[in-house]
Each structure stands twice: as structure tokens, then as C-alpha cells.
Amino acid sequence: MLGIRLLGEMEISRDGERLEMPPSRKTRGLLAYLALANRPLRRERLCALLWDAPDDPKGALRWSLSKLRPIVNDPDRARILATRELVSFDPAGSHIDLAAVRTRLDGGIEGVDTATLKELQAEFRGDFLEGMELSACPDFEVWRIAVREEARALHRQILSAVVERHAGEPDMALPFARRAVALDPDDAGRHSLLLRLLAESGRRDAAEEQYVVSLRQLRDHAAPAEPLVAAWQDLRRKTPAAPAVSAAVEPAQAPVPELDRAPVPIAVSGLAGAERKVATVLAACVHRIADDGADPEELSRQADFLTALRPLVESFGGMMGAALGTSAVVLFGVERTLEDHAVQACRAALAMRAALASGSGGELCLSACLDTGEVLVRETAAGGAETIGPAIQTAARLVHLLPVGIMAVTSAVFDRTAGYFRFADPRDFAPEHAAGPAALRDLLGATRARTRWDLTAARGLDAFIGRAAELATLDEARRKAGAGQGRIVSIVGDAGIGKSRLTHHFAQALPDAGWTLLLADSAPHETGAFLPVRRMLRGWLGIADTAEPEAVAGRLREMVEPLDLLPAAPALSWLLDLPVENPDWKRMGASQRQRSIIDGVLALLTAQARRGPVVIVMDDLHWADEESIAVIDGLVRILPPAAILLLVTYRPGFRDAWTAHSCYTLCHLDPLTDDHADTLLSRLLGPGEDLDPVKRGLIRRAEGNPLFLEEMTRALVETGRLEGRPGAYRAVGDVDDLGMPATVQDVIAARIGLLGALEKQVLQTASVLGRTVPLDPLLAVCRYGDEAVRDALAVLNAAEFLYQTRFLPSAEYRFKHELTRQVSYGSLPRPRRVALHAAVAAAMESLWPNGLAAVVDALADHCEAGEQWDKAARYLIQAAAKAKSRYGLAQAIALAERGLAAAEKTGDPDERCRIEALTLLGDLLSLRGDLAGANGAYVQALGLEEDGHRRPAIANRLHRPLSMTRAGGRVAYYEHGAGSTTLVFIHPFVYGLPVFQPLIEDLCQEFRIITIDPRGTGASDPLAPGYDMHDHTEDVRAVLAEAGAGGPVVGVGISRGVLLLIRLAVLQPELLSRIVLVGAYWRQTVGLGTKVPEGAEAGGLMAALEAGDLRRAVEAFAPTIFSEPGTEELRKQFIDQCLNLHEDTIRRFFTFDPRNDVTGLLGRVTVPTLLAHGGDDRDVPFAAAREMAGRIPGASLYCFEGKGHLPTFTATAEFCDVLRRFVRG
């Protein structure tokens, strides 16, 4: 079916699939006109509607019809019907949204059922032909506007009818009441109805928040707000009003006024029970400079001065509590989250001091202390809210202990504001009642830095890195604009991604090429009309903020007179804060003045563009005022014939109105690649290899965000973990825990704070699920309704907090940045976190009862964080076993230890979980080579296990240490398990006992097992000079003689342990009943020696050995031992284990020794022999094992298909089964 959407942005689809729209807006307008006409139209009428011009209008009409036919005609039906005189559209079998609404409502809305009305309401996806203005076609515009108003009227009727029919069902009516407000934001009645429905549904907090929003919207539209205020007052009389928020802290120890009890009247948006925030606290106290006693009237006067500062404080985003005497606490970043709350608090403090001194004639002064920290904003039992946090207590205590007139900040504030202000040197301040000294800095004044970009530029810019494709996009726009084809380029990206850096890097060279460069920006704390435009104009004229009005007026005259722009002078004068005496200007209303200002700015810019090309950079448009946006809207409409390049930057979530214009280009900034991030860090830190781990950690955490990289680097320097100078740092101390810099946290928190209450709560809930967010458990945990959650996810996706990574069979989302998840998660109070984790765990169990093994890691995390200790212990142990099976040893140990801790909280009377956790932990510590730790875990498990049938399963795992002395040296060995048959495992020096642990776990219940620490390893003595294979063979022989239990044993040799075992089998066959040779070496030309393994050669093994670089040699050798996919963790453990050995042991392992060749002994082996070899062994080729088996009389050969050098690890069960069959022969 053909579908034509006219409500909202025009769209054409067939059977639900969108079709490519005609590129011409007039062609699209023609289709819309025909689709709604429902009758044939004369060609002359259509030409006059859209192409009333001297060129060929009929030809233009024919061209447009030729473009429409392939799109809308069906294979068997022509929908565009044309004769020489008439043109019509056949709508049969198609769906045209507005036509469908008209048809259904033709008989009156009363006869349409509610379900149908809701379906019709869904057709309204926006205004009629949104974004389809054709200002050059006045007849078309008259028609479009008339139909738009008709569509709005129909929409109003539908919404009103649905809300009325759901009387008494506020939850059902609310979505439609919200849409009605969005449709008519200047209608106080619709706002009042929405408030009433919210109150009736029991959403008191949401109603209070909506009242503030509605009031602001009505005032922004210059609409009367009295009906809304009256409705709100009526609702508050009927339902208890929420008390104002108070800043509550513990009483200060010092005898000072209890500021912590002062109420702070703030409406906390989106508060769901409680929320953690980072805020800045300003504790202020007014003093009389000439302190001549505490006269009550004088104190009252001082308190009045302090109260009078409230509007000033609020202009900086602060909220002042009710003054307690001459003192008050002001909170920044609590009512609404600010990314520069500390900066704003300092600015407010300076402004308060200046205002107080001016207003009191210099009689009064202000003392202040500012601190930043986490606060908890929570609901009270009375239904209000309070703010609690140590920063409030600190500031309130210290302000009364500072010298009169001093304003000081803590280190937490200084870290966030350095560069924006001037501070005195730090001094330790140790008040009598403080817990310890506080490093305070006196706040002296502001610097010239106003924005983060100002601060970055003042610190000095690093070399520009990457962004070649983006620069090419900007250069192409410059080329077109310079040729008189004006362009607008929107540079869109997350905070700190480099938008300003890119635009300024690109634009700074243009003035040398004859371009006029104009700069403007917006800041989050600024309010007022046309602020970026005012700033651009002042910068263009070279006017300082402190310039005298006469000088400003003179510069303006010098600009406008040569451009013949005197009619624009009144508007431009107003922008420059000059008095305007023009009588026409004085007679204008507000809207006329706004129009005049916009026209004046556009006239100025286009006049300048006629003299030479102009580039305008408008930074941070997401904070700009509506009037400045209107200037850009007007400029975009006139860009095409002007030599103007407009570069605007903004963050995701800002909705511009320019995408439909042909002069528009979108440039989306992605994170830096890892290579570019590494280049940036090399310039920040230095090129030293010792910094590589630091760089890797920073790149992983920052995920390509340049600001995050720079701020994390600065944090490492400031905390003393990097020493040196820029470009030449060295790492000192622990750099693994990088933390999150305060500036980064504030930026992210502010973005989250702009979200609506529902979106914020969905984001918080999603943060509990982890970086990856499956939709099904999210819907199960969220209590807002599936449709509301999906709508919230759409908003979060559009704002680039989350993005959808999977659609089928079930949807899945992912946080764009892990730091965003951490900040959102950190805003949840601990009880809420615990409850959400428990709910997520229950949802996962319910949703995936047969697939829990696949999600056991996440399930374990949620049960643990949700304090479901019984389940947490069980799932953590399962997760540890799963990690062990994937060779993730470090992760498995951590999980097992957490499982043990959880098990200790369960109160399980039979201690089953603790026993399982301890046994598993013993196995894992054995794999790491920590035999003492492993035995400790096994002994603890035995102490808890009371079942005599189960105890042997634990006891047989113990590594029972023994030793003997030969040739003056100690040789350590271990006994494991129990059984009539003894297995002796022999390994090369560098492999270590962990190489046998998987076999011990599997076989210790059936066999007695002996493992040996060769000399130079483990608990045995170091190697003596000249110690060779003969000596090692004698050591093994001596161990067997002492521990062999009086009979021959089964010898199992691995890798070069095979050489020793063959010697023993030939020289003393009575000691061995059978031998198993795994990954067998038999001469030096097989494996190491004159021919190194291919993989090791590629890794530079021989070059490393020749250079004496043992670390590099081991790192090159390890991939030949553990070559299979998924064995990276084993490889890493092998490297760490080798490098813990004595250097002499490692060096001798890699030393070529022709005496190790046992080629001549193979034919003399009489002991039954099994060769077990990996089919994909990269160290010793399988062909070598086949040849060796042919040289040993009666030897058997077994191939582990697809396995590498150590199938004992990667095919443990198969190996043990082969071994059992061979031993029991």
C-alpha cells in the first residue's frame, strides 16, 4: 500500500518501507497539494501555485510530474493522471494521513469511538508539512498555513474528546493531556488540566515539577499565567503541598549558628525517593566592618542585606536557604545539575561581596567558605525533601572560623575552578574544633576565562590530531561559501569530543585568506536575549566590556555608515547596551523589536559578505537563547547567495531546524581512534615505554574523548602519580585506579540532569544492568509501563546516552560511554541500588530460567549487589567455575573469593556454599602456583566438611610437601591423591607445577600423584654451576627411589620433560611401569635449538636471546606453548610465572645443549610408551611425534585434534580418559 505522511515531515512509503523523496521541495509540495485536492486541477493553477515565474513554469510542472510518477504509481495503476489541461491524483487504495483524519471526522467527532480517536491521534506526528516552507511561493504558503491550522484544530478536537472520555481515569488521560499542552503551550487552560490530572493520579512531585515548567512556558509565550496560578493554588489546598527542601547536616562541633538546619527552598526535579548529586556549597556570613557590638537592630539590618542577595544568588543557579541570623547556606547543582556548579558558586560569592559592599556603602563585608562534595537529596517523612552531605557541614563550620571578610575555598572547589579565578597560595587551616587541617585558598577574583574553551586556549593548545575527514568537510563548505554559495555546517558531538577545537583550528587560518572571522558562544549559566549575538558584535567591533558608551557608539557609527546601514543602527545600538532615542524604536512592541534586531543583524552580516567572505563560529548552541537561535534561523534562509560560512557546534539532543535546507551539512564528531588517542597521550605524557600501561588505561577509560584524556592526565599529575613535565612524565605510584576527574563527572552529570524525570530514572535503572542493557529485564524492573519506557529509551537514544545494538530476537541497548553509566549509577542512593539489583536478578531468573548459565556472571553481580546472599554465593561460585573453564584465572579467583564472602553471610547450617567456594579457591590458587594458599583453602574446607564420604574429595587435592637431598642440594616434591597406582609428572624447568593442576583435579581420586620442583624452581634449591640434564635425571631417580612406594610408577613427561623421562626409561627401566610423552622433544632440531618454532621465530625469540632480553624472549616463546584461541590468559600467566624464576634458570632453559639429544636412546626404550600430541602444536610439529613413535618399539600415538602444545589444559578430560585407558591397559 502506498502511504503519504503529511502530518510532520513529509514521507512516502510503500508497504511500510520508506521511499526516497523527490529532491525538489516544490515537487514534494505539488504531491501534497494533489493528494489532498481529491479532484482534477488545472495546470495553470498548479503553475501559479508553485512556478509563477518568467521562466518555463509548464516545463517545471512537467518535470516535477515525471519525478513523481516512478515514486507513487503502482505497477498496475497510474496514480498521477494528466491531460493537456488537468492533473489529478488517484488516492484509491492508498493511505494519506490527513485525508484519513478528515474522512473519519466528517460526520462529527461524537460518532467516533474512543479507540478510533486514539488511532487518529497517532497520525499527528507533527505540524502539517513540517519544514516545507516555500517563501517564494505565496499562494502555496497561504494554502499550507490554512491547512496547518485546520489540522491543528482537528488535533485539538481529538485530544479534548479523548481526555473528556477518560474522565475519572487520569492515567489514561495523561498522555493526551501532555500532547495537548505541547500543541498549545500558550493555553493556560490546557496546562491547568494537565496539573489536575497529575494530582488526581497521585503524582504530587510530578505535578509540582510540571507547574514550574508550565509557568515558564506561559511566560516565554507572553501568555497570561493567572489561570494556571489559580488552578495550582486550588490543587495545593486540596492536597498537601510538599515543604521546601532543607539543607540538613549534622550539628557542627564548633559553637556556631546551626546553618545545617536552614531550609533551602528548591524544587528537586525528578526526585524519586532520593538521589545522590555532586554539589557546591557556599556558606556565607555578613559582618559589620566596624564591629562595635551585637546590637539586635544592626544584626537585623545585616540579615536583611543577606536576604536581599537571594535574587543575585539565583541568577548564578544557586538556591539560598532561609537566612539564620546573618548567615545562610547556598547550594549550587542541587535544584538542577550544573556542569560548572563550582565556578558558578565562586562567581556568586564575588558578586555577593561586591553587591554587599556597594549596597551598604562599605559598612558591611562578606565572609564565605565554599566546598564541593556528594550530597544526598531525599524525601522526608513529611513529604518534603532535604539535602544532606559533609560538604554542607564543612562549609557551615569553617565560615565562622575564617577571618572577617575572607572568602576561602577547599581543594575540592579549587580543583574544579583553577584557571577561572585567582587564588592565594594554599594554607593549612586547623580550627580548634575541626577533625584535621584543611587546605584552604583565599578567593581573590576572576580571570578572563569565561568558558572551558577559554581555559583550554589559555593553558596552551596541543598539536591538532586526527579529524582529517571532518576538516575536508569544512574545507569543502569554505570553498562553496567563498564562491557565493553560503553554507551552514553543524558540528555535533558529545561534551569534550573536540567541537570547539576543530572549528577554531579550521577558522584561525581564514583571516589570512581575506575572510572576516566572527566568534560567538553560549554558556550554561547565562540568561538574557541575544547574548551570543551581542558577544559576536562586541568582538567584531573590538569593544571591551568596560568600554565607555561614547566609544562604543563611535565604533558602531564607523561600521554602519560605510555599509549604508543607518536604519539598522537603533537595533544594533540596543544590542550594544547603548541608549536608543529613535522614536520609531520606542513605539515598537517586544515582537517588533525582536524582528528589527534580527533584520538588523542579518543586514549587517550580508553587507559585510558583499565586501568579502565571512565565517561565523557559534559555539555551544545547545545553551543559546531562543532569540539568538532565531537569528541563525533567519541567516540560514538567506545563506545561499551570500559569501558566508556559518559553523555551529552543539551536543546531541539539540534539535535544529535547518536540516532540510540545501546549504546545510552535518558533521558528526566520533571519538578519537585508539591510534590518535595514543598520539595525543604521547604528546601529553611523553614517548617512554614505561608509560604504555598508563596510556592503555587512559585510552580504555576515556574511550576516545579528548577532554576526558586530558583531564585524567591532569588528575594523575595533581595526585602525584605522574612526575615530571608535559611531554616528559614518568609514572610513580599506583596508576591502575585512574578514578574519574571531577570535571569529567560534572560534565556528564549535567547532561544527565537535563533529562526529564522519567528518562533520568530509566537511565539510572539501565545503569544498574551494566554497560549492556537487555530490554526485557529493564522493562520488568521499571514500573512506568512498557510504552513509557520505550519512549524514554527513544529519547535517550536520540540524545546518545544509549544506542540500540540488537533488535532481534530481543532488543538490547548499550551505554555509549562507560563513564556515563558510572555517573548515572552513582546518583542512586545505596538502598535504591540494592533494591534495583535484587529486582534485576529476580527478573533474569524469571525471564531466562533455562539460560541462566549464559548470564551467570551478571546474575552473580546483581545478587551480590542486591544482598541476596544465598543466591549470590551460589551464582558467584558458578561464575568462578565458568571463568576457570575459560582460563580466566585472576577473574575466577576474585569471583571465588566474593562467593566465599557471600557464603559467610548466608547462615547456611551445613556450610555447603563455603565448602564449595573454598575447594574451588584451592583449585584456582593451585593453578596460580600458590600451593601454600591452596592448601590453606583445602584445610578450611576440610574443617567445615562433616560428611565422611565427601572429605576425601577435598583431602586428595592437598599438595603434601616433601623433600629430599641429593648432591648437596634440596629437591622439593609433592604428593597428591590416593590409589594403588602412582603417577609421576615431570615438566621442563620454566613450566611450573600449575601445568599439572588440571590433571591432579581430575585424577587425584583414583591415583597417587607425585609432582617435582626441578632444581632452580619452586621450593627446590637454585641450580648449581654446570647442572645439566643428567643431574636433573638423577634428581628424579632419587625422588622415585624415596617416594615410589616400593614399585614402578607411571611417568608422565611434558615437553622437554620428555627428554628426562626417556633417559630414565633407558637407564633405569625398573623404576617405570609405563611412560606417557606429551608434546615430546627428542632432539634439539625438534623444537628449540638449531631450529626455533616458527611462531617464536616470528616473535623474535632468537633476537631477544642474543640481546639478553629474557622478558622479550619469554613473551615470544609463550605463544608457541599456548597457541589455541582463548588461551591468552594462560599465556599471560605462563609469562608471569617464568619471569618470577631466577634469571639463570630461564637462561639455561633457552641454552642450546647437544647433550640433551636423545635420538640414540629412542630405539632402546622397552617400557610401554604412549605419545600424546596436539594436532596443531606450534612448538613441536605432529610429524615429529609420528617419527618419534616410529623409533620407539611398540609405542602408541594419540592425536588431540585441533589442540596445541599442552592438551593437558585445553583437552583435560580427553587427556585423562586416554591416560586412564593406557595405565589400566
From TrEMBL:
InterPro entries membership: AAA_16, AB_hydrolase_1, AB_hydrolase_fold, BTAD, Nucleotide_cyclase, P-loop_NTPase, TPR-like_helical_dom_sf, WH-like_DNA-bd_sf
Single GO MF descriptor: adenylate cyclase activity
A GO CC term assigned to this protein in UniProt: cytoplasm
Domain Bacterial transcriptional activator per the UniProt entry, residue ranges: 96-236
SMART domains according to UniProt: BTAD (SM01043)
UniProt keyword list: ATP-binding, Nucleotide-binding
PANTHER family reported for this sequence: GUANYLATE CYCLASE DOMAIN-CONTAINING PROTEIN, TESTICULAR SOLUBLE ADENYLYL CYCLASE
Protein name: Bacterial transcriptional activator domain-containing protein
Organism encoding this protein: Skermanella aerolata
